Amino acid sequence: MGCCRRNFNTDEFKAWLSTLHEEQPGTEFCIKEDDQKETYNYLKDNLFGQIVVWNNSVVEEIITDCTNNEQIFYLHYEMEDRNQIKELIKSFKRRMFCVCQKEYEVSEDDGERNILLCCSSGLTTAMFAQMLQDFSNNNHLPYHFSATSIYDDDTLSKEYDLVLMAPQVQHYTKSMAAKYHKRFLIMNPVDFAQYNCNNIVSRVQEVFL
């Protein structure tokens, strides 16, 4: 991982963040700095977006709806994989400046599915797994969601019908699929960042139905 960080051009990355708003008329932009981080702020209509670059190479993407002060988008990840980071920033840009997001239709299903969510620590996905479980229960779907870290070998070695990968750890998918011989699906960054249970469950159903 250290090698990836050394090869990552942080200055180039920050310069790119300073241009995200340029093709979006009416967007207010500013940068705030302190001893621990740099925060890139974007205000467009009723949405306030922030990309926080911490000195320890962690990045946070946050979008807040100013009408009710509700956080509607959140991602955090380490600056490790250049291509992955580009995709995650593009997801922030699409949600910030192009609000239209397709809503998929959830189908009926009587097949039991054991589904595991994975991220770096398992903390974020544990909360999301409970939300997906509640959504499935409310829609009478016999799905069972749980969550773990990508480093939890014992849990990953158990039987699951599908493993859902958080977008910020998607670059581990190929090696993990080869090691654990399971079906893996990378969650859409916008759906994951917005905890869009409807779309995640619909994508799960595309695998099985």
UniProtKB/TrEMBL annotation:
<feature type="modified residue" description="Phosphocysteine; by EIIA">
    <location>
        <position position="119"/>
    </location>
</feature>
<keyword id="KW-0813">Transport</keyword>
<dbReference type="GO" id="GO:0008982">
    <property type="term" value="F:protein-N(PI)-phosphohistidine-sugar phosphotransferase activity"/>
</dbReference>
<keyword id="KW-0597">Phosphoprotein</keyword>
<dbReference type="InterPro" id="IPR003501">
    <property type="entry name" value="PTS_EIIB_2/3"/>
</dbReference>
<dbReference type="InterPro" id="IPR051819">
    <property type="entry name" value="PTS_sugar-specific_EIIB"/>
</dbReference>
<keyword id="KW-0762">Sugar transport</keyword>
<dbReference type="GO" id="GO:0016301">
    <property type="term" value="F:kinase activity"/>
</dbReference>
<dbReference type="InterPro" id="IPR036095">
    <property type="entry name" value="PTS_EIIB-like_sf"/>
</dbReference>
<protein>
    <submittedName>
        <fullName>Cellobiose phosphotransferase system IIB component</fullName>
    </submittedName>
</protein>
<keyword id="KW-0418">Kinase</keyword>
<dbReference type="Pfam" id="PF02302">
    <property type="entry name" value="PTS_IIB"/>
</dbReference>
<keyword id="KW-0808">Transferase</keyword>
<dbReference type="InterPro" id="IPR013012">
    <property type="entry name" value="PTS_EIIB_3"/>
</dbReference>
<dbReference type="GO" id="GO:0009401">
    <property type="term" value="P:phosphoenolpyruvate-dependent sugar phosphotransferase system"/>
</dbReference>
<keyword id="KW-0598">Phosphotransferase system</keyword>
<feature type="domain" description="PTS EIIB type-3">
    <location>
        <begin position="112"/>
        <end position="209"/>
    </location>
</feature>
